[in-house]
Amino acid sequence: MTPEEMRNNLRPFRDKAIARGIAVGDVERWMDTARPCATLAEGGDGPVVGRFGGPLLLPAGMPHPFHPFVASIDLAALPADATDLPLPPDGRLLLFAYPEDFGDLSDMGNVVHVPQGTVVEERDKDGWAWFEDDDEYQEVFAQFPQGPLRATVDVSLPYHYWVEIPEDPCSAPLPGHPRSEELAAVWEETYDDIASSGPLQLGGYATEEVVETDPVGKAVRCAVKEAEAGRWGGGEPVSDDVADWVLLADWDPWIDGLEGATVHWAIQRADLAARRFDRAFTTVFRNP
Fold first, then answer.
1. For residue 221, which phi and psi values (nearest 5 degrees)?
2. Which of 47, 49, 158, 258 sits 20 to 30 Å CA-CA off 36?
3. Was domain 3-286 assigned CATH 2.60.40?
């Protein structure tokens, strides 16, 4: 989606924000932050670009990812300019996660890119070892969605509106956007008139049930702390600047017992450009 197309689609947002008394300049600056994204859902008229579940096909010899299998995406099938992410032009993107927040900052997922032409072998989807003897976790995994995913190209604006600051009141409007809270509220009100909805999103902005600060920012903080403790990152540099990171994907699972959970897969821009999907970091927000 081109910048012009995004601005055209955002007209209902612009009109409502201005009618709300927000200055045109503030509205326009907020619209300048718009990003294209791909909304993936089981319904709709868009092309089939992947599926929830299905056979787990991994490169021959690759160790089984630590977390359960969620979805596969055929990158060549994505509509052109569906996102502004430098995704590979082909192959499959495999997403893994467990939709729970254990409060320990740990990485709760994996991402694997399987390039076109790679020799693959089918694996047991129940092969993630850490839950294999736990009935509770198996019951959750049994509820993971199954079925084809169709793509719709949408426009995304920030759902968050604060940044954390070290002194009272501990939060402030997004830099350069003094009306950020009001603008985010207008986006929430007009979203259904502008964009489609679906359980999985590629690119764009992260959202969750209670979103005040950027969920990608939490992923950055967790990744940095885990890297400093030697538990993630492979000893390579990890940026603590959220501007160096992007949202790769969001998933709203709506699983019984884990209602209000949202999974965020984030990655450093440099790692995405280098196709270092092993360095994606996954966080989960849950509002029980």
1. -60, -45
2. 258
3. no
Contact 116, 91 (CB under 8 A): yes
Helix and strand numbers (H, E) in the chain are 7, 14
21: left (phi over 0), alpha (psi -120 to 50) or beta: left
Q: Are 250 and 207 in contact (CB under 8 A)?
A: yes
Q: How far apart are CA 78 and CA 9, in angstroms?
A: 20
Angstrom distances, CA of residue 60 to CA of 56, 117, 141, 165, 261: 12, 12, 24, 47, 33
Q: What are phi and psi for residue 44, nearest 5 degrees?
A: 100, 180
3-state helix, strand and coil shares in percent for the chain, rounded to the nearest 5: 25, 30, 45
Nearest C-alpha neighbor of 196 from the set 154, 158, 159 = 154
Query: How far apart are the two ends of the chain, measured CA to CA in Å?
Result: 36
Kindly report the pTM of this predicted structure: 0.94
